[in-house]
Amino acid sequence: xxxxxxxxxxxxxxxxxxxxxxxxxxxxxxxxxxxxxxxxxxxxxxxxxxxxxxxxxxxxxxxxxxxxxxxxxxxxxxxxxxxxxxxxxxxxxxxxxxxxxxxxxxxxxxxxxxxxxxxxxxxxxxxxxxxxxxxxxxxxxxxxxxxxxxxxxxxxxxxxxxxxxxxxxxxxxxxxxxxxxxxxxxxxxxxxxxxxx
Length: 197
What we know:
Blueprint: E1 2-7, H1 14-29, E2 36-42, E3 47-49, E4 55-57, E5 60-61, E6 70-73, H2 79-82, H3 86-96, E7 101-104, H4 108-115, E8 122-123, H5 130-136, E9 141-142, E10 148-150, E11 154-157, H6 162-175, H7 177-187
Parallel strand pairs: 1-2, 1-6, 2-5, 6-7, 7-11, 8-9
Antiparallel strand pairs: 3-4, 10-11
């Protein structure tokens, strides 16, 4: 069983973390709860106020969470704050050194850029902040036309709903096309952008 940690923070974009949470949780449920342990983590175990006022209780703090096999960093306006938080940046660096995959959705790529983990890789982000990502990550090839990009251990997606496509791709990468298709079917989600990776 793989542990999937989804980082949440104030002003996180709701679908950026809820979409991936749904993909991975449905995959697990459809496979007798034997594949994935999906949980949220924040700087402290507390209620996070997501974008547009949704309140979510983080299941773990960065100090108490199980060691992740996969780390997902979502986006949202709150990334502008956490990308300057040295404790979060250090935690991501340390966790990434021991994970199988690091994933970002939307402006989560800005946070990952601050860690240096995007150096020498290809990346994308929400279409409105492509130029900002280029400024923050001068050693990264930033592509504006890709829905998601697989760099091997680091996979990044464009804005908001692109995270769902990326996570279904990750399920396929880890468990095969039939498992991913079953998850998408259950979610009634049409993977129209899968060829844009």
